[in-house]
Amino acid sequence: SHMTQATAFEDPRIEGSQVTPPAPRKVEMRRDPVLGFGFVAGSEKPVVVRSVTPGGPSEGKLIPGDQIIMINDEHVSTAPRERVIDLVRNMPSYIYICCATTHNPEIPKSQVCLIIKISIFKAGPLHMREFSESSTPGI
Q1: Residues 6+ apart with CB under 8 A from 128
Q2: pLDDT values of the chain reduced to their tens digit, one per residue, 139 residues
Q3: Could you tell me which residues belong to the region Disordered (predicted)?
Q4: Is 15 a domain residue?
Q5: Which CATH number do you get for residue 104?
């Protein structure tokens, strides 16, 4: 005897293509007199963070592959790389960047992992920092 059973079929290809992009986040950084803001921008549109300088102001705030959406109050998601760089260079001390972490096909995951491993290696051993109540972590 045969049993009849109905099942609902969901195509996993459709489900995977409907991934919600990550929510944008806003980060604040203070310019370092030597390292600047401590990140390198790529040439894509929107401009993407290529690398983060170990020990720099953007370490722990930006990650390779982050899309830069806004700098201060200016939308830059369709701006050319030169405009983004000009905005960053012309910020005297503080900058606010709105960015979103996405998988960038230009930067393979293996390369991102390598960049992170190199950053950790170059950073050396972790040191505890003292924070007063008036200090802001990460700045």
Answers
A1: none
A2: 555 555 555 555 555 455 556 688 999 999 999 999 999 998 888 899 999 999 999 999 999 999 999 999 999 999 999 999 999 999 989 999 999 987 655 555 444 444 444 444 454 554 444 433 444 444 4
A3: 1-25
A4: no
A5: 2.30.42.10
Does residue 94 lie within any of the structural domains?
A: yes
Is residue 58 a part of any domain in this protein?
Answer: yes
Alpha carbon separation from 12 to 17, 22, 105, 116 (Å, rounded): 9, 20, 21, 31
Residue pointed to by tokens 């806004």: 70
CB 31 within 8 A of CB 95: yes
Q: Give Cα separations from 52 to 8, 36, 73, 76, 78 (angstroms).
A: 46, 11, 22, 19, 22
Full residue range of the structural domain in which residue 44 is found = 22-123
User: What predicted TM-score, i.e. pTM, was given to this entire model?
Assistant: 0.58
DSSP 8-state assignment for residue 4 = -
